[in-house]
Amino acid sequence: MTLYGIGLGPGEGDLVTVRGKEILDSVDVVYSPGRLSRTVALKHVEESKIGDLDFPMTRDEDKLRTAWKAAAEEIAPQAREGDAAFVTLGDPNIYSTFGHLRRTLDAFHPEVEVEIVPGVSAMTAFATALDVEIEAGAGLSLREAANGHAPTGPDRMILFKVTDAPATHEGLVEAGYDVTYGRRLYMKQGETIITDDPSEIDERDYYTLAYAVKRDLNIEPATAKFAVDEHDSEEGEA
Asked: What's the rounded Cα separation, in Å, for the pair 167 and 178?
């Protein structure tokens, strides 16, 4: 039997993949690590099928290890005797809580089979939400920017966990970047905000990201260019 790590997407219930929906329908129990992922999962499964897990909001490594070990102890028997799912916003392998569970299972319950079902991540969905095209051949770096951190260097960056937008903005502007912010993109919970003014999102919110692009960057659209010579132009006018 199998434990499925299912990416629910950025937060809207209809952005769960078809594969993810099929597995949610088929498993015996669906474990959720938090309120937001639980809310999305409930769009697809009955509440009686949800198994809630308790993870402390702390950076204390001992407390976190204890919590993940307890979660693995709860999930392992279900995954040995039937099929279970652990759901997480975004993608299970991209800055996700699922990684902690998987490593704990590998250490204490190696007999549990694990399968990953990828999900739409806000790290990619931002491009549509912000109406940004990352053209063919362009580089894009992913950086964490919590607590006012303002990483610099790459021509284009997607920053996540922007919890102090004004401080991050100041550092990026000084380094020559234009910045657009997106808060709670494709999420039903809370207000979605897209802005280039950091004062509009000055309160702390974990679900805030930013797209930063060098101000003097010469961006060529990813389209074919066709030269029209003078002869063709004259024939067209005739």
From this structure: 14
As annotated, the residues of the chain forming the CATH 3.40.1010.10 domain(s) are 2-117
pLDDT tens-digit series, residues 154-174: 999 999 999 999 999 999 999
pLDDT tens-place string over residues 37-88: 999 999 999 999 999 888 877 778 888 899 999 999 999 999 999 999 999 9
Domain spanning 122-214: which CATH class is it, in words? alpha beta
Arch. (CATH architecture) of 2-117: 3-Layer(aba) Sandwich (3.40)
Buried b (16+ CB within 10 A) or exposed e, 176-205: ebebbbbbbbbbeeeeeeeeeebeebeeeb
Residues 6+ apart with CB under 8 A from 75: 3, 31, 51, 84, 86, 101, 105, 112
| Alpha-carbon torsion angle 9, 190, 194, 209, nearest 10 | -50
pTM score above 0.85: no
Q: Could you tell me which residues are beta bridge partners of residue 156?
A: 213
Give backbone dihedrals phi and psi of 128, rounded to 5 degrees, phi first: -70, -45
